[in-house]
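This section describes the prediction task in plain terms. A model, or a person checking by hand, is given the sequence of a single protein chain and must write out its three-dimensional structure as a string of C-alpha cells. No templates, partner chains or ligands are provided. The sample shown here is typical of the held-out split.
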Amino acid sequence: MKFSEQWLREWVQPNVNTQELADQLTMAGLEIDGTEAVAGEFSGVVVGLVTAREQHPDADKLSVCQVTDGTETFQIVCGAANVREGLKVPMAKIGAVLPGDFKIKKAKLRGVESFGMLCAEAELGLAESSDGLMELPESAPVGEDIRTYLNLNDAIIDVDLTPNRGDCLSIAGLAREVGVLNKCAVTVPAIPSVAAEVDDVITIDVQASAACPRYLGRIIKGINVAAPTPLWMVEKLRRGGVRSIDAVVDITNYVLLELGQPMHAFDLAHIQGGICVRMSQPEEQLTLLDGQEITLNPDVLVIADQQKALAMAGVMGGEGSGVNSNTQDVLLEAAFFQPLAIAGRARAYGLHTDSSHRFERGVDFNMPRMAMERATALLLSICGGQPGPIVEQSSADALPTLTSIVLRKARIEQVLGLPMVETEVEDILTRLGLTVGAHEQGWLVTPPSYRFDIAIEADLIEELARIYGYNRLPVRTPAAATPLAKRPESTLSMQDLRRALIARGLNEAITYSFVEPQAQKRLDPEVDALALLNPISADMSVMRTNLWAGLASAAAYNVKRQQPRVRLFETGLRFVPSASGLQQIPTLAMLITGARLPQSWSAEPAACDFYDLKGDFESVLVRTGMQAEITFSRGSHPALHPGQSAQIEKNGAIIGHMGALHPSVQKSLGFKQAVFVLQVDLDAIRDVNVPSFADLSKYPEMRRDLALLVAHDVSVDQVFTGIKEAAGDHLCKLNLFDVYVGKGIDSDRKSLALGLTWQHPSRTLTDEEVNSSVAAVLSHLEKQVGATLRG
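The expected answer:
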C-alpha cells in the first residue's frame, strides 16, 4: 500500500523525518518497501494564466501564448493541443530547472521568441506520461510556486503489510501505529452525522447474513456528477496509487484510503425494487465495471435488486448499475463482509481490487456507519444533493464478538526474556486501543473491533514486543535441559535409510504434495485424488495419492536437459481418500532410468532394469534384517508394465508395488527410455530385527547342489519356501546361482541351480543325515510344485 507522508502527518505529528519514520514502521512489523518523492526535483515553476493565444505563423501545431504570473506577462510558444485562453497551468520561467537538470532558457521556435515553458505532469515528474498541459483549477493563485500550491514537498511511502495487519490498510490505521510508536496524539478528522433532508429510503434484504452481517445504504438525490474533484483529493489519491475517475468514485476511493472501509455508489435509477444481498443463482451473469462479462459461481456473494445481480460483493460493481454522466441520484453502500465469504472469489476470475484486498484480510465491522457519514459529507460538499436517512440491516449473531484474553505477567517474561513493568504493559496496550482490566495472573485484555488479528495471549505478547522494540529485547542464550533423545534400535532411522539409498547412487528429491491432475490420473487411475479448493495453479490442483507423479516430473525435466541417467528417491506423505477420511500415509518412492552405471572405460554400457531397482530397495532391507519377511510376487498395477511389475508383501500383506512404467504412461509423461519405479509404505519397512549373539558352530558345513526342473510359472520364491519347509532345522544357507532355459530341457520348463548348506551347532552332520534331508526336499517339491531333479 502506498500513502502520502503529508496526509499521514495531518493525523499524527511524530518528531521524526521520513527515513526515521520508515525505519520505525519496519521495526514494528510494517515493512517499508521504499520511499519516493511525489514529484521530480525542479524549481522556478509557478502558476501561470494564459491571457491570450494565437496561431503560430509558420507552424500548424504551435501556439503563441501570452502568459502572466500576476506581475508580468511573458510570450511562450507551446505545442500542447489543450492550451487556450483563460487556462491556468504550471509555467517554468527563464532560469527554472526541471527534472533531469533541464534548464529553461530564452529560445526561438520557428522564428518566434519564447520566454519560458508551459508544463505537463510528466515534465514535472508527477506522472509517467501526459496527453497535454497540466490544467489547474480556476481557484489556483496566479504566481504562487507550484511546489507550494500542490504541496509537493512530500514523500510517497510504500508499506508491505502481512495478511494479518489489514487494520493498517488505511491512513487511520497507520496513524494509530505511528501515534503508539511515538507516544503522540492522533487527530481524527471530525465526522459529524449528516441529517436527512429527504425521506427516500431503499429496502434492504440480507438473505446471506452469515456472509454479510452488516449492510448500510443511503440515498442521496440531486447530485452534480459533473462536478470536478478537488485538486487536494486528486493529489492524495494519486499519491496513494489511485487514479482519479469522477467525483463520486473518487470520494468512495478517498474514504477507502482514509478509513480502510471499501464503499460503492450505485446509480439509483438502475435499481429495480430494493437491494438483496444473496448468494448467486445458477449460471447467473454479470458484466463488471471493467467490461468483463462473467458467469458467477454458486459460492459468490452478490448485491442484487429484485431482478438481477448488481455487483460482486466486496470485489467490484457491475457496469449496468454504476455511476455515469447521466446519474442524478445515488445509493451509497457500506458493508461488513466476512473474510471467508470474499477470500478467493476475486482470484477465481483473475481479479484483484482494493476492496477485495481489504475484505479478504478483514475490516472493522463497526466502521461502515462512520464511513457512510464521511462519504456523505464529502459528496454533499463537492457534488451537492439531498441525503436520505441511513438504512441498516445487521445480524448480531453473525457479527464477530470481542473476546477477552488473559495475559499472564509470568508468560511475558518467559517469552520475551525480560520482566516488563506493569505500568509499561498497561500503557502500551492502552495506547494500542485495547481495553485492559485486572486479573489474578496479570491482565484481562479486550481488543478493539479493528484489531481482528488479536485472538490469543501470544498475539498480545507480540504487540508488547513490537511497541517496546525488537531491537531493545535482550539477547541471551536459551538455557534448557537438552537430554539426548532415545533412538530405538528396533526402528530404522530416516537418516540411515537415506544413507543406504545415497550409497547406492540415488539422489534424494523433495517434490510438492500438489500435483497435476492428469499426471496423477495416469499414475494412479483407480484413486480419485483430493482436489484443492484454492490451488496455487492449475498444474498443482490435486493432492498426490502416490509419489510417482512428482518423481516422474523431476526425472522428465532432467532427461530433457541432457541428463539421461536419473536415479531418485523421495520420502513423504501421500494422501488417499477413504471412507474413514483422508489417509496420510508415509511412503518411500524410487525412480531409475537410463544407464546402469555412469559412463566409464571399465564397464560396458547397459541400461538399468527391474533388478537394479529391486537391488537398490533390498539394500534398505539389509539394514533391517527383514529380508525373510519382505517378499516379491507377481502383481499388477494400472500404471506399470504387465510383464515387468511385482507387488511387495510383508507377511502376506501388500505394502507396495514396483516395476517398469507402462509404455503408454511412459510416453504420456514424455519419456523415450524405460523408467522403473517403486513405492512402498514406509512404516512397513522400518521395523528392525535387532541382532542378537549366537554361538558360532565349530563343526563343518555340508553342501549339496541341486538342479531342479520346474514349470515356467513356478516362482523361485515358491521353491525356496518348499525347501525351507522340508530341509530341517539345520539348513543354514540357501541360494540360487543359475537359471537355464534352452537346449536339453522341455520348452515349458526351466532349470534352477540351487546351493543348500547344512550345519549343526554341536556335532558333525553325517552324509546319511544330509542325504535324507535332500531326499525329503525333492519329495516335498515334487508334490508342491512338480519339481524334478535334472538328469
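For orientation: The first strand starts at residue 2 and ends at 4.
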